[in-house]
Amino acid sequence: MNNVIRFQFTKGEEVRYLSHLDLLRTMERAGRRAGLPIAFSQGFTARPLMSFSFPLPVGVLSEAEYADFTFAAELGPEEFVQRYNEHLPPGLQIVYAARLPEKTESLQSWINAASWRVSLPGTSPEQVEERWRQLQAVDSFVVNRETKKGSREVDIRPFVYDIFQVESYQGGTVFSCRCGLGTESNLRMEELGELLGFSHLEATVTRTGQFKKVGNSYFPPLGNRG
Amino acid sequence: MDKRLLPLLPLVAKPARYTNQEVNAQHKNWAEIDVKIALAFPDIYDVGMAHLGYKILYAVINGRKDALAERVYAPWTDMQALMEEQEIPLTALESGQELTSFDLVGFTLQHELSYTNILKMLDLARIPRRSRERSGMQPLIMAGGPSAFNVEPLADFLDFVVLGEGEEIIHEIIDLVKQGKAEGASRDDLLEQLAQVEGIYVPKFYKPVYDQDGRFLSLEPLRPDIPREITKRVIKDFNSLPYPEEFVVPYVEVVHDRVMAEIMRGCTRGCRFCQAGIIYRPVREREPEVLKEQIARLVESTGYEVISLSSLSSGDYGRIGPLVRELIEQYQPCGISVSLPSLRLDSFGVELAQDIQKARKTGLTFAPEAGTQRLRDVINKNVSDQDLMDAVQGAFSAGWSRIKLYFMIGLPTETEEDLQGIVDLAHKVLAWGREFRTSHRRPEVSISVASFVPKPHTPFQWMAQDTMETLRAKQNYLKERLRHPGIHFSYPRVEESFLEAVFARGDRRLAAVIERAADLGCQFDSWTDRFRFDLWMEAFSDLGIDPKFYANRERDLFEPLPWSHLSPGIDADFLRREWELAQEGTTTPDCRWDVCSRCGVCPGLRTANSLVRGERSE
Fold first, then answer.
1. N or C: fewer beta carbons within 10 Å in chain A?
2. Helix B416-436 crosses helix B468-481 at what angle (to 10 degrees)?
3. CA angle B196, B202, B207 (to 5 degrees)
4. In a mutagenesis test of the A interface, which of B11, B23, B295 is the best target, namely the one with the most A β-carbons within 10 Å?
């Protein structure tokens, strides 16, 4: 019997500014408070077997974060959700969980795309749509990406797949988009801002989904996985 | 939190410092509470969240229906700049209320280099700095903590100061404030009543007198019914004392983020340089059964992965061995580890460390403090060469490869021989490492050398601190001789130790210097990259005050001292006796296991050491 549970959770306003490491610590401690029988790795430095999808940038909200927990004892998904939710701090909530079949690909090797909802103050839907039309006409948009090894040029145009539901909202604009995520086609928030002409610090960004993109189809890590 | 900070959060480092909403944070109904207390820590969240004293007070105060305690930390400079620019005053984390809405704002005085932060926080809160400038509805500013035992440099800024342990006296304070508010008592009336409480010092009711040469003569009470001497509060029944059942669990990484069990309070080893060893007397050990219950509750309510057994010298706790082993047996299977903040420097200490660090044997730290047996006898650090050898050899044989040793320079009677002793010891440890190591890693030794700061209420309170030039020369002596593969030498800057020495034994005239330094931009002085010695020196010179008068002047053994009215219960004769024994290199045994050293605490405070049953685990 495989004892891995994959679950989807939210990261709300209350915990918006947690870094990825803060989040891991918080989830681990909540797991211990809830008495979840999380299994530990073997070896000198035993670590709890908890693996997460790609880190969310600090300050970004999410409706669709994912993690896989391995358990040392039998625990059903429903009981897991109920017990864990009782002990998670406000803003973190499990929305769905399922037992994972044997030999499922890890989250980080499965996921290669994400959908985002971006709320921009002081911008009109027309401006966003015009910008997107211009971008669709070009096939490259090169930015400098700072890494630990220095700076290098990256073409980020191919990493934005589509923009949709562009609407006016509270005097600004809210829109959704799908972009690359992960190791190969990753798009950073500040780069999305640069592409679409907004400051990512002024935007309210929510990750609304994570997917495996195959052609033009998007498969989430839970539920319909293609 | 204060909603006005929300738009600033994306612009600052570690915004989760300011957002509150942590697990176990207490949110009370503001309107229904009689007495509201802000527990202000004069440093950033990441540092302040480690403070056990505030965790205890937070639980004690919030345990009452009529009172609340909220946390306040210094915002880091990025946030400060934004708050000033947008004219947002300092607020408390839980309710987001401005500090001016509280009845009491408390500051804990952990060390001298935090003093400018207190002024900065008052400024940010728009509370006048000086007690005499505050009036009417403004909160009473109180302070406590180890540096309260010479609070004189801060006296003008504080309305009242609490000496000693806070668990009982805080109730008396709350009751008086509640009653005062109900009766509409004036600020001064309330302070007068507080001044009657044992352990409370109201600085404005006293006036210092200096002689023509500027030496302190006396502190005169300005009202007839004000005590001439204030004696600290001490908890007699340590086992029945309430302990927090919950700690606030921070989101961001903070110092000592773990379950802290206070296994013991006080230390009677009698190291002559150590102020904590004096002001927290007597020794009170908590029963293992009480501790285990407290730990279980905290583990359950926090989900922490580490349990720390806290005290001034945890290796001395009477049942430390069995306690550590039982806790490991119970918690290790759940992925929770046990840690000790300090290790006893002998083979027993290493055995304990072995129980604790089964897996990752990275480094072990010991504090011999001085390089020769002679000087260790002078400072009454009762550790022998043999203990040291057993501990270090034992550590290498058990698999450790890195040993860190703490020393001090500038101790009384120190000669070149003692410095050479540090050098010799470093090389000896390295040689033992090569001989005894079982790890595949190459042995390494880190030598950390602090400059000694003479502290009030210790046997060394009269001595002159070495001048900065002398301390630098000693550092250079060591640096040249410790340049060797496998030896790492580090030392804090002498300027920091110098300033600590000035304020540790300062008087009320230094308030103006602190104020001037704060105006010049000094804050976060304990952060090495923020420390501005040049600005501090400018502040001293602006006020025509010579800092060397405080740091580098030897006091006469019978000279009046500016802190003598703030009593930890110690006999001045005991301190003088200890000073003389130090000169002869005669040690004084620990009164826990040997004869009474007649320090005066037990009879004076009507208390006694209280040890757990069972022989000392040696």
1. N
2. 30
3. 115
4. B23
Q: Which positions of chain B have pLDDT values less than 50?
A: 617-618
Closest Cβ–Cβ partner in A17, A33, A40 for B16: A17
Does A111-218 carry CATH code 3.40.1350? Answer: no
Which of A15, A87, A202 is nearest residue B251 as measured by Cβ atoms? A15
CATH number assigned to the domain with residue range A4-104, chosen from the 4 options 3.40.50.720, 3.20.20.80, 3.30.70.580, 3.40.190.10? 3.30.70.580
Instruction: Please report the residues numbered 299 through 328 in chain B whose beta carbons come closer than 8 angstroms to any beta carbon of chain A.
Output: 299-305
pLDDT, one tens digit per residue, over B542-551 is 999 999 999 9
The CATH number that domain B234-342+573-618 falls under is 3.30.750.210
pLDDT digits (tens, 9 = 90+) for B285-318: 999 999 999 999 999 999 999 999 999 999 999 9
Q: Give tens-digit pLDDT for A160-214.
A: 999 999 999 988 999 999 999 998 888 988 899 988 888 888 899 999 999 999 9
SS3 B512: helix
Question: Closest Cα of chain A to B533: distance in Å?
Answer: 34
CATH no., domain B3-219: 3.40.50.280
Q: Which long-range contacts (CB under 8 A, 24 or more apart) does B219-225 make?
A: B219/B562, B219/B565, B223/B192, B225/B192, B225/B196
For chain B, give every domain's residue range. 3-219, 234-342+573-618
Query: pTM for the full model?
Result: 0.95
Three-class secondary structure of residue B2 per DSSP: coil
What confidence score (pLDDT) does residue B618 get?
A: 44
